[in-house]
Amino acid sequence: MPWSKPTLRDLVERASEDLSARLLDGAPLRPQSTLSVLAITRAGGEHMMYGFLAWAFQQIFPDKAESEFLDDWAAVWGLKRKPPSASLGRVLVTGRPGSVLPEGALAQSPENISYRLAGLALPSEGDSSPGSADVTAETEAEAVEPGPLGNLPPGAQLQLISPVAGIRPEITVTADGLKGGADLEPDDDLRRRLLLRIQESPHGGAKADYVQWALEVPGVARAKCFPLYAGLGTVGVAVWGLPEAPVLPPELVARVHAHILERVPVTAGPGLYVYTPEILPVDILVKIVPDTPAVRHNVLAELADLFARSAEPGRVLPRSHLTEALSLSAGEYDHNLLAPLASISPTYYQLPALGEVLFVEVQG
Description:
Low-confidence stretches: 127-131
Mean pLDDT: 91
CATH architecture of the largest domain: 2-Layer Sandwich
Largest sheet: 6 strands, antiparallel, barrel
CATH topology of the largest domain: GMP Synthetase, Chain A, domain 3
Strand content: 15-25%
Number of strands: 14
Order of helices and strands: HHHEEEEEEEEHHEEHEEHHEE
Number of domains: 4
Helix content: 25-40%
CATH class of the largest domain: Alpha Beta
Shape: elongated
Radius of gyration: 29 Å
Distance between the termini: 53 Å
């Protein structure tokens, strides 16, 4: 039968009955007496001991273990917690024709995040704006410090920390943005990889193997494998990041491709396709009862959690799951989902993501 930890009240009663039976022939302890204080003190110590035993018991199961013990379990199965990853992407550099940006030049964002730029020689000729002889070219940029703070949207501006002859100090992030920055792998993600490794043992290139290999790369939060992606002998692997920045930069996708290529069977390499899906925004139009700021906040949280857990390329997201998330929102009594009117059916190249959520006010 299942074991349940006794409550502090239960332990106080047990200690009191024990002391009463041994010292008072069963007479009840008097409140505020020395024996009552001893009973409470003893029960408090036992309660802490039971709490520790209950916690320690959880650590022997990989699906319940906490950080330190989860790392130990992962090591047993040959896994390591992924380190933080730095943001990657491309930027636009403008300057006089023929000017050279040295390898490793540093630029800084308004938030004082530093980025290391790849070396670049501006072309001797090129398109220039009217009244200007300057030319523009692209180069790679990577955040010096890992973490999500280095992610930047398209068009963000950087400034060269040290002047470079012939190069303008203003650096512009390209349309793809700087992405892929992530913190140290959290417990839930490591636990998910560990359980996948335990439940899906390596099979020398089975479907689950490709997912495990992709998830080993820092910056990759989720992955999905599509056998026969482009015909016989091909495999497609979709990889994406955290919900706040799911589309990964091409540089990180290339790292994933190279990482998997080192592990696939020799004959499978030429047919390997690794890509990051494009976002399929899903706008929500809903009427909720009661319509209060708190309930709206809870609805947004439940919808965001649903897309983070369930949205995948090539996988239908049933409309009923949206209504279920609305019903699970704390404080919600009733709702009417006005849009979408059908389930979301993404292609292999699309990742459904929560778009704009509009609340229709209830007419009273």
